[in-house]
Amino acid sequence: MNGVGQGPPVLVLHHDIGAPARPAFYDALARHFTVFAPSHPGYDGTPRPDWMRSVRDVAVVYQALLAQHDATRAPGTVTLVGLGFGGWIAAEMATMAPRAFRKLVLVGAMGLKPERGEITDQALLSYIDYVRRGFADQRVFDATFGAEPTTSQLEQWDLNREMTFRIAWKPYMYSPTLPHLLGGVATPALVVWGRHDGIVPRACGERYAKSLSNARLEIVDGAGHFVDMEKPDELAALVARFVSEA
Amino acid sequence: MHLMYFTEQPMSAYPAQEGLDFGATALMFSNKHFDPVAGSRLYNEYLEHYRLAEAVGFDGIMLNEHHNAPFCMQAKCNIFASILAATTQRVKLVLLGNPLPLAENPVRLAEELAMIDMVSRGRLVSGFVRGGGQEQLATGVNPAYNRERFEEAHDLIVKTWTEPGPFRWEGTHYQHRVVNPWALPLQQPHPRVWIPGVLSKETIIWAARKRYPYIALSTAIEDTKKIWQLYDKVAAETGYQGGPEYRGYLQRCHVAETEEKAMENAKQFMWMQGEFTGLAHPVWSSPSGYFSPSMRTAFVEFAVGRRSNPRAAPFEDQIRDQQIVAGTPKTVIQKLRRLLEETRPSIVGFWGADGFVSSDDTKTCIRLLGQEVIPALRDIGKELGLWSPFEASSPVSLAHPEPSNVRGLEMAPHTPQPSSRPG
Question: How far is B146 from chain A (nearest CA, A)?
Answer without folding.
Answer: 11
